[in-house]
Amino acid sequence: MADREKVRKSEDEWRRELTPEQYHVTREKGTERAFSGALWDNKQAGTYRCAGCGQELFSSDTKFESGSGWPSFYEPVEVEAVETDEDTSHGMQRTEALCSRCDAHLGHVFPDGPRPTGLRYCINSAALTFDAADEGGAGGG
Ligand code: FE
User: Fold this and answer.
1) How many angstroms does the Cα of residue 104 sit away from the middle of ligand 1?
2) Within a 13 Å sphere around the CA of 5, how many CA atoms are in the beta-carbon half?
3) Can you tell me the distance from the alpha carbon of 141 to that of 138, in angstroms, rounded to the nearest whole number?
4) Burial (CB count <10 Å: 0-12, 13-18, 19+), residue 73
5) Strand 120-123 vs strand 128-132: parallel, antiparallel, or unpaired?
6) H helices of 10-122, where?
7) How far apart are CA 141 and CA 122, in angstroms?
8) Rounded CA gap, 115 and 32, in Å?
9) Ligand 1 centroid to residue 100 C-alpha, Å
């Protein structure tokens, strides 16, 4: 099980540890421009972690091509890893996705995803770091 202890830092600490883009997205609930992030088109096998605290959030096994320009997943690695909250900003009724450990804003969850969940976790690249899976003896590729 992942460590559920909350990570709490001051805004100054977050600002020091994160890039300006990561800070804007995760701490100020920003949104990167579609198709601008590093990971929307990433097709490598591996694990997506929270850019703020490193908690495992998503697996490449659940990533799909949504056409949105943001990394899209149909479910988190564990339900406890991603919390949701109602977001009525910008005149829209949306469901916000947050890291359960450090409360980083990740993106939003929409009910138009593929099976088996029918959900689309639309996540900013700037809220994620990617660990490529160890290719082992396969020779890489
Ligand atoms: Fe986090």
Assistant:
1) 5
2) 2
3) 8
4) buried
5) unpaired
6) 11-17, 20-28
7) 28
8) 26
9) 7
DSSP state of 81: G
Four-point Cα dihedral 92, 76, 52, 54, nearest 10: 180
- Predicted TM-score (pTM) of the model is 0.92
How is residue 125 written in tokens? Answer: 């690249």
Active site residue 53: no
CA of 64 to the centre of ligand 1 (A): 22
| Residue 28: other Cβ atoms inside 10 A | 10
What are phi and psi for residue 80, nearest 5 degrees?
-70, -15
Q: Which H/E stretch holds residue 72?
A: strand 72-73
Choose the catalytic residue: 50, 99, 102, 122. Answer: 122
pLDDT in tens, 52-110: 999 999 999 999 999 999 999 999 999 999 999 999 999 999 999 999 999 999 999 99
DSSP-assigned states of every residue in 1-22:
----PPP---HHHHHHHS-HHH
